[in-house]
Structures are given as structure tokens and as C-alpha cells.
Amino acid sequence: MTTPSNSDDIFWMRRALAQAESVLYTTAPNPRVGCVIVRDGRVLGEGATQPPGGPHAEIRALLDAQARNETVEGATLYVTLEPCSHFGRTPPCVDAVLAAKPARVVVAIGDPNPLVNGQGLARLRAAGIAVTTGVCVEQALAINAGFISRMSRGLPWVWMKMAASLDGRSALHNGMSQWITGPEARADGHHWRARSCVVLTGMGTVLKDDPLLNVREVETPRQPRRAVVDGLFGIPESARLFDGGPVIVFTAREDAAKAARLAAKNVQVVVLPGPTPGRVDLVGMMQWFAQAQFNEVHVEAGAGLSGALVAAGCVDELLLYLAPVLLGDAAGMVRLPMLEHLDAARRYAFIDSAQVGADLRLRARVEGAWRTLMQRVALPPIAS
Amino acid sequence: MTTPSNSDDIFWMRRALAQAESVLYTTAPNPRVGCVIVRDGRVLGEGATQPPGGPHAEIRALLDAQARNETVEGATLYVTLEPCSHFGRTPPCVDAVLAAKPARVVVAIGDPNPLVNGQGLARLRAAGIAVTTGVCVEQALAINAGFISRMSRGLPWVWMKMAASLDGRSALHNGMSQWITGPEARADGHHWRARSCVVLTGMGTVLKDDPLLNVREVETPRQPRRAVVDGLFGIPESARLFDGGPVIVFTAREDAAKAARLAAKNVQVVVLPGPTPGRVDLVGMMQWFAQAQFNEVHVEAGAGLSGALVAAGCVDELLLYLAPVLLGDAAGMVRLPMLEHLDAARRYAFIDSAQVGADLRLRARVEGAWRTLMQRVALPPIAS
Hints:
The structure is a homodimer. The first copy, chain A, is of the alpha/beta class.
């Protein structure tokens, strides 16, 4: 049995999405999920996915209802992602939902995880529960684009953070770049670092800025991994990055002795030579990330690596902070092969523009990549 | 007597501003003014400034009320700019307002024209009419920034239209630039041409694109003047620009014979040498525009002239169309002297960002210039 969605459904699903957003920094490699249980316009219980090993959103919401002495039988349960139907680190959520006997379950998007993939919904339907799908699909996908991408494409969702002047300059000709954008934009950038699974940079940035690449400007109980692309494996072993926290160095050159010394500093060295000598296989690196359960990659690199990632088709989204300033003759944002025709340029679609302090944050994404994910999370309306 | 503004005042002033916006293309060199006459929440009459020589907004609104058989006595009159108190091409509006005996007049901004400058309001007050000032000041100034700038600074309000990729490139290395942005952005650009008094470009653009510089993509009964900066007076006499419509060429080099030949084509040649040999005095050119009653200058030029105007402090506002595309190694937007420090960069403040087709239109302005105008239109609350 399927019932259509309505404006009430959108209202409550937004509340479930807000639950999911509240755990943006903590659930990786699991998806961020929110759940709200409602009867007659009243919330009986709600919750969000806990850190790995902890309960998922549905269980949290059911426990919350229990703690409030509410019975869920006959109520409507809103959940931002199809409930899981398999044993992972925790038992299947769909069993707990079935036991609670809601009359209706509303789901935003399907879970393309081959262990779920519609089976959760099929079991609900078999038990006579009314199921509505496809409420707030875009928003639900945006929260978990990384998880969905890993499950459906075998690739993480990759965004590239850049900061530049209005005329697209990221540094003066003398290399001076700190700070083109203001403190609010920097803090906002750290929010994006915090939600990612890994912060990726290039060797040029390590040499120029010696960055820590950790999350500082926003509070988070979890630090993303840090990674450097260093084709020739020339990275100084004294880099500030090697502070004892886990780091990955991708390189095209074997050096067992250096790798062993770095391993003592909690650095994993991954040798991934690409077709060009001395260059890392960037697509292979992204596949490696997905296999290692990294959902979202936050790139924060110079014009060289940024351009190489764009040219290799590895970037799904641009996160661009524009300062209201003109710099004129200065360093560009991305180094790309010269184009002879505008048709050959890499095209994106704007999805957001927001003022952040004095600066503007623009987001644009590769429409094809997004459409692929949208197709993979679409749940056909279920016939009764 | 002064009464405070309230939310009703804002509502009706917005309607008067909409009247003013409806004549954006036609009133130059006069300001665009809107007027609405209201009693008990009902419009008695409304109108906007007609083309030069025609009636001003207040007269139009009074005539409209007359045509509807409404009496204005005791009503409230909203007007976006202080009513004029001098004889120009038409008699003073303040006389007509006084004769209609409204109980109250609400004015957005003062008119810094030395022939008005508070005298209009003083005469209303002397007649016992309640006057409220300062409603929707920013919006009212934005509609007439050019007129206000000319009256108060002896300079036009200058915006610079640019189109670029996300990484600030305005053309490929081979010069290909048509079209980085889409048709909607181009049409929007023509709207800005249409409202301006003059469309200004440089010799580089004439040689590269041989543009017409007229308004084509939006309907307008008036074409703005067209002007070219051509320091060495090398402009080809066969340029498409010289189509019989009026054109101004600013140059640093005298050539009476060429000037005479161009005059026959309706081209005015203005010799304005600057301190650098072969270069036009750009600040002098802007003063010339103001003296010739040009309110708003729309710059649409290449990186050379654009950079020179920015460096000379001639640009008040940036009108930037960003295409969601990365071009990498390609031509920049503005050529500016190299900077050694970010503090030396030209700073603007974002005032608007809007999606236009697939592109984004950003507007940013020089805060100091705007503040100067704000100060000149501020009307002190009038004590009773």
C-alpha cells in the first residue's frame, strides 16, 4: 500500500533532515540519517545516527518514544534514508521498525547499498505498512552524497574548496595568499573540512604553507583524515602535518626506508603510479578512498593539483569563496590544459550562493555526477 | 510637523519606487521618480517622471487622481525624491503639491541639486503639511545613484560590466570569448546598457569585436550614447559603431582632419590628454560626462581599459556575470599594477547575487562612494 506525500510529509521530513544534519561530523563512514515519529501532529520520538557501532536513527527515535512513554503503534515514522535490512555493526533497523508497528513509513531516498537496495521497504510493505517514498529527495541526497556515491559509483563525492578574488586570483605574484577571504569564510571552510572524511592537498601547498589541515575553527569530536598527493615522494619528514595524527601520502615513487620512517609517525604511504611518470593515478586514488570507506573528500590544494583533479574528472563540486576584491596580475586558481574552444570547458551548475562575512560562497556541481546519484536513490512508488 | 514612518509608509513607498523603476530607461538626464497618492489604504493616483520636457512624477500622480475624480486634499503623497522647487524645463512640482493640499508628504531621499536641496520640503512644511523623510533610502538612492552622484560629486555613477568564468577568465588564450555566459546573462547586460546614459568601451574591444554597443536584447525607446577611449586616435573610420547614431571618441591626440571626417558621421571627438603621453585623462573624462549631464556610465571593455579605470578610481560598481565553468590558462578580467600586499587591493562590498539563466550575476560596489551619496541624500527629520 502506498500513500501520496503531502505538505505535512514535507514538514516532518524537514525535521528528520535537521536531525540528520545535527550529526554531520560524526557518523562516517555510515550515512547521516534522521528519524521523526509523529501522530496527530505531535512528535512521539526523534533521533539521528550515532557514531559507528552506536544505534541508527530509527532505533534512537524508537528509544526516544519509549523514554517519553509513547506507543508508536499506528503512528507515522519519517526517515531520511531507507531503513537497513542487514546485520552490520548493529542489527537491522527494519526489524525494530516492524516490531513497533507504525501504520505508515515515509522515506526520503533509497539506500543503494547492495545489502539494502529496496529490501528494507519491501519488508515493511509485506507487513502491511503504508510506505511513501521520494519526499525531499534532493535535500536527503545532499546530506549523504558521499555515502551514496561510494555505494553506487565506487567513488567518494569530491568537492574542491577554493578562495579567490573576484577576478579569480588566489595569490599575489609574490605568493602572498593569506588571507584573501575573511575570518567568517575561513570558519565556514572548516565546517566543510569537519564534515568530510579526508582533507586532501598537494605537495606544493605543503611546501608553501606547511599546513596542519585539521579542523580548528568549528568544534568537532572527530578529525577527518589528512592526505597529500606527492608524486615524487619528496615531502619533508618534518612537515607540521606529521603531528602524530593519521595521515596518508599518495605517491608514484617507492621508497621503503622513508615509508617506514613515516609509518612511525602514523603516516600511511600509498604507492599509486599513474600513466605519467612521477604522477599519482588520481582516479585510482579516488577509488582507493571509496574502498577504504571514505565518503566525502575535501580538496584544498593549489592551482596544480586542483587543475589536475578537474582535468581527470575527479571533482564533483566546487566550493568557492570569492572575496570582493580585484587583484589583477596574480596567480590563478586552477592550472588546466589550454582550451581551443569554449565548448571544451568544464561545465558546472550553480547550486548555492551565500554571503559569508564580507565574502561570497558559491557552490557549483557537475550535473552528470549528481544525476547519476539521483537515479540511484530514486525509489519507485510501491504498488499496494 | 514631522510624523514617523511606519510599515504602511514602507509599503506605499515601495509602490512609488516601482513607479520610478518603470521609467528606468527614459528620464535621463532627469532622475527617475515615482509618486503615489493614498487615502485610507486606497490609491487616488500615481505616476512616474516622463521623458525630458514632460511632467514629473508628482504632476502625473495629481493628474491621475484628477482623471479618477479623486480629491487629494487631506491625503498622503509618497514620492521617491524630494519635489523640485525651481523652474527647469517644467514649473516647480512643489507648487502643484501645495495647491492639491495633501495632509502629509512622505519623501524617500533629498535632492542634492543645489536648486532644490531641502527647499522643496521647507516649503511644504511652511504650509503646515506633515513631512516624513528617510523611507526606503537605500532603494531610492539605487534607482538614481547616477543623478545623485552628478549633482553631489560632479561625477557620474560608473559601473563596469564583466563576464568571466568561475576562475576569472574572460577569454581563451586564442581570444575566443563569445560567449562565455549564456543568452539570459547577455539580455540582462543589455538591461544595464539601456538604463545607462552612455556605454563606454576601449579601442582594444573595437579592434577585436567591432561592436555596435547599442541596446538590442531589451526594448527601449531611447538608446544610450556610445563612447570609445582611444588614446592614440587610431580608431578605424569604418568601425561598425559609426552607424550614424551619436558616438563620442575620447583621445589624447589631436587630428583635426580625422575629427572632421568623423563629425560627418555624427561622431564627437573629445581631446583629453592625461599625464601619461598617448593616454586619455580618465578622471577628466568622467568629469566631462557629468558636465554633459550623463548620470550613469556603463563600462564594457577589455582587461586594459577596465584595469585602468579601476586603478584611476573611476569605477563605483562591478557588474559581474560568472559562468559556471573553469577555463584555466586564459585571459584575465582586469589588468592592474602588480600588488605587493593584499591590503593594497581594491575592495568592494557585495550588494547582490542572482542566478541569471545558468550564470550568476554579482554586484559589488565601492563602499566609500556609496556612503558619500547616502550622506548627500539624507534629510534630517524636520522638527515641527
